[in-house]
Specification:
Layout: H1 6-21, H2 28-34, H3 42-47, H4 50-62, H5 65-75, H6 79-95, H7 103-110, H8 114-122, H9 128-140, H10 146-169, H11 177-193
Helix pairs in contact: 1-2, 1-7, 4-8, 5-6, 5-9, 6-9, 6-11, 7-10, 10-11
Amino acid sequence: MPRADASAELLDAAERLFAENGIAAVSDRKIAEAAGNSNHSAVRYYFGGRDGLLDALLDRHLTGLEPARKALFEQSDSLLGDVRALVLPVTSAFAALPTPSYRARFLQQAYAYPAAVALLMAKRDRAPIAASVIASVARRLEHLDPTIVNARMRLMTHILTTACADIEARGTDEPQWSQTGDFLCDAIAGLLQAPITSSP
């Protein structure tokens, strides 16, 4: 009979190994061994394979972000307010993790791994608040070239994941996620609305 907590142990082991080594470099067998599971096919048994495991890891992070985003978005009356609705639920989720944590570094790896990116894209319909916030950001920046705005919004994701992964990797007992969130919101809002230099 499978242990009730075996799937959670596999998720924890996979998140750590993916964060430390990269997703492609870690076998399902290594994940099972790190989770203390003697069944080397445990990933397939519990998650149906690598994609199912990645999907469960992403869901574990994304669950709970939408209600927090909704609360912040309802209070927003500015571009900075919209950015806070996107960023602060993420840094708050990191703050709630036990230390040491590996979530931010896993997400950095996931955003560079095609199969994980495809899974994230498929989940967009399950995050309507995030989509509404992004649409609001675009409306507030209608005076700028939409191609530049879209590129800056993609850069926003890169900045958020990279900065949070870097902070997590420092291994401090109590990362200052609240201050980090405020800093990133200010920086990203400035980036999004910066003037565009015209090419000659």
